[in-house]
Amino acid sequence: MEIKSVSPYVAVYQDKPAPYVDPYTQSAGMVRYSGQRFEVYDGYGWITISPSYNIDLTSDVYETIMWARQKIAEEKKLAEAMEKFPALKTAFEKYELIKRLVASHEQAE
């Protein structure tokens, strides 16, 4: 069985050795090939499964990844601008200091 991801953010690796499975004792999650189909044991009986599945992310996870990528790009652009304009770097450092002072004050209340 081949497992593929349609998402660029999910990697599926198949290079780990399979765990030991007692072929004489059925347990939930066991997979077998029976004739021309794959089956999985759900704890009660064998259920036929499709030979391929799609794995994808929820929209929340996808939006979070996109937000993180945007933030990384913004921070890179800001770092480049601070290298080019020392006054921006000084202003940013003062902003960060004030932000920490405010957070410290809010925690003390």
Order of helices and strands: EEEEEHH
**What count of domains describes the coordinates?**
2
Q: Give the beta-strand count.
A: 5
Fraction of residues in helix: 40-55%
Report Rg. 26 Å
Sequence stretches where pLDDT stays below 50 over 5 or more residues: none
Q: Given the structure, what is the number of helices?
A: 2
Secondary structural class = alpha+beta
- The global form is elongated
Features:
109 residues; alpha+beta; 3-stranded antiparallel β-sheet; two-stranded parallel ribbon; 2 helices; 5 strands; 45% helix
What does this structure look like?
The chain starts with a strand and ends with a helix. Strand 3 and strand 4 form a beta hairpin. Helices cover 45% and strands 16% of the residues. It has helices spanning 59-84, 86-108, and strands at residues 4-5, 31-34, 37-41, 46-49, 54-55. Helix 1 (59-84) packs across helix 2. The protein has 2 domains: 1-56, no CATH class; 59-108. The longest helix has 26 residues, at 59-84. The relative contact order is 0.11. It is built from 2 helices and 5 strands, in the order βββββαα. It has a 3-stranded antiparallel beta sheet, with no helix packed on it. It is an alpha+beta fold.
